[in-house]
Amino acid sequence: MSGLVNISNTSHEDTCSPEPQHMSLAVILCLVYLLGLLLNGFSLWVFTCRIHKWNSGAVLQFNLALSDAIISPLTPLMAAYLAMDSDWIFGPFTCQLKIAVLSIHFNGSVVFLTLISIHRYVTVVHFNRSSLLKRKTFVKKLCAGIWGVLIIIGCVYGWVLPVTIGKNHGQCFSIHQETLTNAYFIINFVIVFFWCILPLIVSVFCYSRLVSSVSSINNSSVHGQSVKNKSLRMIGICLVIFGICFLPLNVIRTIAVIVKKYQPKKCRLLLQLETAYYACYVLAGINCCLDPLIYFFGSRNFMKAFKGSLRVIGVRRNVENKVESETLSQSANKNVVGLFTVS
Fold it and tell me: What is the CA radius of gyration of the chain?
């Protein structure tokens, strides 16, 4: 079978077998990403159907919502993998597709969050200067280029990390894949530097300058107070996403690949790290639920469109309820008239 490596001849003493994960992990994983799909699906609908004039910030936020939404269709496969004692039965191509989409999802979320941080810094701190990030045409081209790079990187990861068979278990994107230890080690540190440390440094710099700038805004001005509150909320949300969703996942994965490479016989520790990694993976999925708060607090157009959508939905429901009650009332009146007519 193409893309499948058999390692069943490896000595049992030199390998650690995956242990069943608690069913709650699979259940929580599905619930988190289902909620993320609903929130981001609604956000994409607001962007495409309710906001008619986009600025450069809306373009970045739309792409962030898109990168969050693409992972949801594969979530049931990942939950089933956990529920079936980490035994991948869906074939090599599906595993490689999962790895590619995971890479696009997480890397896309990080890079678009970082660009939103830079954009907010530029528009607030350097509001009187021209910048390419303020131009919608340039931002569209930038996002298209980023998607191209993300897809290429995802395809490379999917190609170099195939399914392996060990102890009658199909292993997909697992620390127990003995033949891929070196590949995981190298890829992990590439991810940690380019998709964690570097974006975090850039975001912290932008938000530290942003805090310094908004602290000097005149609170007596309604517009100034609005800009200050909106900026501070965005700072808090973005730093929470980086600190709670992405940082623990990268730290645990780094510890795991180091232990796997240099202490491969410490099975108990590796199994504990594997469980911790899956827990952090679920935690990382919460970013899909938190990102819509950025659109709500960071875009006045999105906030207006969101509130307008709720009003439209509320009006439609009221109209439907009114029509339904009138229909029932007319039907009841007809029944009463018919009763007296018969009598």
Answer: 25
Q: What is the mean pLDDT of residues 50-54?
A: 86
Alpha helices in 126-221 (DSSP H): 136-160, 181-192, 198-214
| pTM (global) more than 0.90 | no
DSSP at 63? H
Domain ranges of the chain: 23-321
Cβ of 10: how many Cβ atoms within 10 Å? 14
Least confident of 88-102, 168-182, 301-315: 301-315
DSSP string, 39-71: HHHHHHHIIIII--S--HHHHHHHHHHHHHHTT
CA distance 304 to 121: 23
Q: Tokens standing for 142?
A: 């930038």
Residue 320 token pair: 């439907």
- Average pLDDT over the chain, rounded to whole? 84
CA distance linking residue 119 with residue 101, whole number of Å: 26
Distance between CA atoms of 108 and 102, rounded to whole angstroms? 10
Q: At which residue do the structure tokens 């599905």 appear?
A: 30
Identify the CATH number of the domain defined by range 23-321.
1.20.1070.10
Percentage of the chain modeled with pLDDT above 70: 83
Structure tokens at 1: 């079978």
Q: How many CB atoms lie within 10 A of CB 315?
A: 10
Number of Cβ atoms within 10 Å of the Cβ of 34? 14
The pLDDT of residue 9 is above 50? no
Closest Cα partner for 64 from 149, 138, 147?
A: 147
